[in-house]
Amino acid sequence: MSISRRTLLRNTAALGAFAGAGFPHVWIKNADLAHATGGEIKVGVLFSLTGTTAIIEESLNKATLLAIEEINAAGGIKGSKIVPIVEDPASDPATFSEKARKLVVGDKCVSVFGSYTSASRKAVLPVFERQNNLYWYPTLYEGRECSKNVIYTGAVPNQQQDEFVPWLINKFGKKFYLIGSNYIYPKEENNYCKKLLEKHGGEVAAEEYVPLGHSEFSSVINKIRATQPNVIFSTVVGDSVVALHRQYRAAGLDPEKMPMASLTTSENEVAAMGGDAAAGHFTSAPYFMVYKSPENEKFVEAYKKRWGADKVTHFVSEACYFQVHLFRQAVEKLATSDLTPPNIRDAVKGQETIAPQGKVRIEPENLHTWLWPKIAQAKSNGQFEILVEAKDWLKPVPYAAYPGQVCTDKGLVVEKS
Amino acid sequence: MDQFIEQIITGLSIGSILLLVAMGLSIIYGSMGIINLAHGEFVMLGAYAAWMFHTYLGLGLLASLVPIFLVVAAFGWVIERYVLSLLNNRPLDTILATWGVGIMLQQAVRLMVGSELRYVQLPPALSDSMDVFGQSVSSYRVFLFVVAMALFAATWLLMNRTTVGMKLRAIIQDRSVAASFGINAKRVYALTFAYGAGLAGLAGALVSPLKSVSPDMGTGYVVDAFMVVVLGGVQSLAGTVASAFVLGELSGAIAFLQNDTVAKAIVLLAIVVLIRFRPEGLFTARVRA
């Protein structure tokens, strides 16, 4: 009997390994590229293809590979092909760190594109700082970080909230119910939101955090009914977003009177919860799939052609896409012999490119990105309608909630008050 | 007062979802003594079945409930027949085996339909809210409560008023004596496991309009289900019902007064303390060793 148990275990392990390798089309594609003749520029692609956040990171992997393929199809960078080395960190911070080390030390990649969660970014940070390599992080995040080894192409709190919060107060009222998942990102966003509320005469009805992966919101909805806020300010993430929206809808609450205002609900989340549950709620982000620009039309078309007509692009996958193009521009400035991560970092400072959302620029001081804030309302067809577009791009201020702290190219400077 | 009634109703609703999810486990763990770690995956299969029936066949949720029960029960039957019974249903071996089966089911779903989150449409007839004791309550949540009670009644009748139920109870009392009276223990075990799996599948389908559907959704449910069954007392179906509603009211109330993070911690702590002083759970059915 013990033999059959062992056989079973072995089979389980084999299946696990097979599943871990997953998504064969990605791998076959890479195998082709690996045989490219001439010069090669090796980069790492580090998004989870299995585990809890695979749901979203898979789309980031796809957007990154699309940009790399486009560049290679156009002749590469000064004749050299970009060779992506795809690793699957399985949604586990420890594995992220291990795979990052493999990509940087073992494969000698000159840059790595990766991470969705802050936890995974924090896990790989020591690797990149010790090896003086370069990590490209596409996700909106809570700010309050100032590394010389990370290029941040997602929004920081000031870029999502500076316009959004006053706009919400004007349109719906000053009473905000803050709800988020229980970890660092929602807490930092809410810190900044509370500052803005104070500045613009708003008030906090309640501030509440639910466990990650939480899916029972009936008590929260009772509390919302009891406090009657004007706006539900949501930084709930993952499956919880879907549960919150669907239960809000089932409880018969009305988005016209008490909308949810989110920093995290993208086309991806809307597709997961269904347009009927999302309709009427608001999101602030630099990019929406419906945004009208020639660059975006090209991006959406290429993405659908490569990965399937039912696929959506969203504000994180857009950043994945344009950051690879920024990488290309930086490498173009360098001689082949100078191709090291610190040189790429210096070359990308102040670089501009026309991204699908508009013209973006890497801020030389803090390596974050100038972006174009937008406010949009979800529609029942699963897309957004953009209601407000910023007149000007907005400077990234990663320490906006912490007066006296500034991220500079010398590192974090704390002014004594 | 209004808020109090509202909160009691919320607790009943949370409790009915817990009961739906735990009932299948209560049968399998309680009666057969199998610690079925793949229980969450049966819930997940049910939710995906609901999604597939809707997406590919255009069937509404209510119309697909019976087929979903049958499909997931068939899965359960196959797993009992070709994995668990070959291990003679020994507890330690089956923990490992069901855990492995769970991983395989998760990855199989991931490979076949992808890892995107899915959702299931609320049945249109139940998408409004209705009036219960002067409170506006989501009709679908009321429906879940009614279904949970109906399934409990059906399960109780099955266990206590049918021949299969009687045979199962005989096997639980003493397997070898039951066998010597001509009861086919293997067959009864397979049927019981299939029934438990089918119930889990139904639970998955029923909660899917309120929650999200993803390949790893089962993990949370299996923990909840074990808490309910352990607190209620193994082998006691009525205990499962009582403990589901106790846990529902308790976590709902603490979540309202404090928040969900605190509720989760306190509820877990309360169970640990209770098990320390009453290892057999709230209710016990007397069984000959």
Automatic annotation (TrEMBL), chain B:
Membrane topology label: Multi-pass membrane protein
One Gene Ontology CC term in the entry: plasma membrane
Assigned keywords, A-Z: Amino-acid transport, Cell membrane, Membrane, Transmembrane, Transmembrane helix, Transport
A GO biological-process term: amino acid transport
Chief place of localization: membrane
One Pfam family of this chain: BPD_transp_2
Transmembrane segments: 12-35, 55-79, 140-159, 188-206, 226-250, 262-279
Subcellular location: Cell membrane
Domain of life from the UniProt record: Bacteria
InterPro entries found in the cross-reference section: ABC_transp_permease (IPR001851), ABC_UrtB_bac (IPR017779), BCAA_transport_permease (IPR052157)
Matches recorded under PANTHER family: ABC TRANSPORTER PERMEASE PROTEIN (PTHR11795:SF447), BRANCHED-CHAIN AMINO ACID TRANSPORT SYSTEM PERMEASE PROTEIN LIVH (PTHR11795)
Family statement: Belongs to the binding-protein-dependent transport system permease family. LivHM subfamily.
Name by which UniProt lists this protein: Urea ABC transporter permease subunit UrtB
